[in-house]
Amino acid sequence: MTVENSLVIDGISDGVEFDTIFLTNTAVANSAEARIAFTNGLKINRDLTYTEGMARKGGTGGIIEVGTTPTKIPGTPLSDRIELAVTNRDAVDIFTGAFAGLTVDNGFKLGPDTWKSYQLAESVDLYAVVAAGTANLHYEELS
Q1: First-to-final CA distance of the chain
Q2: CB of 61 closer than 8 Å to CB of 138
Q3: What is the pLDDT of residues 83-137, one digit of tens each?
Q4: CB–CB of 88/135 below 8 Å?
C-alpha cells in the first residue's frame, strides 16, 4: 500500500502506552494539511501541552451596552488574550471592527442571535456600534 505524506504506525496492540509523542508538520511539509485519525479512539492519561490556538489560562466574559459611538469591547482586555468571541442577543444589528473609526458602514455586521470569534491579542482593541439606540453585546475572552 502506498500512502503519500502519511505516517502509519502498524502493529500497535490495545493497551500500548507512549510516554511522549511529538507531532510536527515537517513530515507533511509538501502537503496542504495534516490529519491525524485514530480509528479506535484516543485515550489520554496525562495533561496535554499547550498548542497555539488553545486556551492556556482561562477566560472571562460579560455584557457591554453598545451605542452609536464606537465602544471598546471589553473596556479592559484580559491579560495574554488569544481569542475574543462576541454574541449579539439583541434584536438589532451590531457592527464590530478592530479600529476606533468604526461605523455601521465599515463594520462587520453581527445580526440578532449571531456570534463571531476573533483571534486577537490583548494589544488589539475590538469596537462595536449600532445604527440607533443601544444594544447589549455579550463577550467572552480566552487567554
Answers
A1: 44
A2: yes
A3: 899 999 999 999 999 998 999 999 999 999 999 999 888 899 999 999 999 999 9
A4: yes
Provide the sign of the torsion angle of the four alpha carbons 106, 112, 114, 115, taken in this order. Answer: positive
Q: What angle do CA 53, 31, 44 make, to 5 degrees?
A: 45
46 to 18, 27, 65: CA distances (angstroms): 11, 25, 42
- Strands 135-142, 94-97: parallel, antiparallel or unpaired by DSSP? unpaired
> Residue 118: exposed, middle, or buried by beta-carbon count in 10 A (0-12, 13-18, 19+)?
middle
Name the grid cell of 20.
511522549
pTM listed for this prediction: 0.61
